[in-house]
Amino acid sequence: MQFLLLTMSVCYSKLYVLLKFVRGVTMLVCELSPKEVFYYFQKLASIPRGSGNTDQIAEYCMEFASENGLRARRDKANNVILFAEGTPGYERSDPVILQAHLDMVCEKEEGCGLDMEKDGLELCTDGVTVWARGTTLGGDNGIAVAYILAVLASDTIAHPPIEALFTSDEEIGMLGARALDAGDLTAKRLINMDSEEEGVLCVSCAGGVRAHCSIPFSVERTNRALGCAYRIEVSRLLGGHSGVEIHKQRENAVKLLGNVLASASRACTLSLVCASGGGKENAIPKTAQATVCVPLNQAHMLEYSVKEFLILMHHELSTTEPELLITAKPTNMPEQCMDQESSRRLIFALQQIPDGMQKMSPEIEGMVQTSLNLGTLRTESGHVQLRYLIRSNTASGNQLLLERVTAFVEYLGGSVVMQSDYPAWEYRIKSKLRETMIRTFEEVYNKAPEVTAIHAGLECGILAGKIMDIDMVSFGPTLSDVHTPKESMDVASVRRSWKYLIKVLENLR
Fold first, then answer.
1. Is 292 helix (H, G, I), strand (E, B) or coil?
2. Which residues pair with 390 in a beta bridge?
3. Are 205 and 456 in contact (CB under 8 A)?
4. pLDDT tens digits, residue range 449-489?
5. Which residues, at least 6 apart from 347, have a Cβ–Cβ distance to it below 8 Å?
6. Is the dihedral of CA 15, 21, 22, 23 positive or negative?
7. Distance between CA 289 and CA 276 in Å, rounded?
8. Rounded distance between C-alpha atoms, residue 430 and residue 386, angstroms
9. 0.85 surpassed by pTM
10. Which residues contact 166 (CB under 8 A, 6 or more apart)?
């Protein structure tokens, strides 16, 4: 009997889990609370809106404006601005910009048959979280668009005049914000809802500039009879995002390669053939490699030097880079290599050129203010090409660091070309909007928010350069695993953040 009861209990447990799973997949997102928000989120999910494919979503926003009697503008970049008057009692209040981006990152699981260029998403929920079947969810930044549309459609939410700014193609370089003509925006305060952690108010972001450095070298013929070649490789580093993870002291493979080569060049006569590493300017390089030539009778010295250097680095980096591997393996002897002067100059460059965290913020504890990431290394047409992403939460920080890199490269006979710069959103010592949002947060949550900054680019940085003296704060509900098919959104967080937004608007008299 006891065995029978135990068996039945197990069966009921399995049935409960199965029913819960089935219910979670079939439950309608639009039934979740707040219904007015999830209604629009589900509507947005039905419209394909990957970056570069925003025509339909921009048109939907214009149709929404028409249906709700709102003045609207759409530009060639598919940015859309909707204008709403203040509600009774707020008609003469200062206006506020509510800002979000329309596009999403389109990624899907292997085997998913959805065409994200043409098909809407298949939303799922278990009442606790929301996700999309086999694809990214688009919570970044669809939930913010849903919030704004729900505010504008409401007859009961008190608010000042609103300028709702929906930008396009944020995920592929903030192209919409870059193309925006802000001439008809009158508000001097802006609430961005592109943050992904509830309880955090972001009040500053880094600006950035890409610096493409080119250092020339001279070549000479190799002596195939008396020399040999090796491929030296640095691998198995952690890498990471060059903005939000730069403070974690992760090793840069390109810089580490410079240190390996410098150590080896003191042990033997070494000539560089070529070098490469990294993949993107905004990612800390995980691998780098170089081909070098040495005299035959010094090959063992090179191998010993690399092994000794690896042992040294295992002691130095055992905590931060536990999987580090450095190898030196024989390879085919090339016909030519860099001459000794060029080799010395370029090894010096890789070892000594600036990289990593440079300055911490004096206003926000624990925040990196200025950094640079040596993201890629290539050997092309008689030049070694080094590509940087320089970041700072102040305009002066970017400028000073760019000048430092330029002076270093030019001293070695090279040149620097600046590309793709975008401004910082600098921290304001005095911010009425920040004060209001902190006070309102304490009122709604009965605790203080975390006030912080991000050492990466946000649209707020570009908008700060287009709207003079704009006062901005960014917030949002909790999203997880964004930009991946595992992306999910916390329903309770959406509900609390919605309540918070409504109260902020009410307090913006």
1. strand
2. 209, 372
3. yes
4. 999 998 888 899 999 999 999 999 999 999 999 999 999 99
5. 258, 261, 262, 265, 270, 272
6. positive
7. 6
8. 40
9. no
10. 58, 61, 79, 80, 81, 82, 99, 100, 101, 102, 145, 148
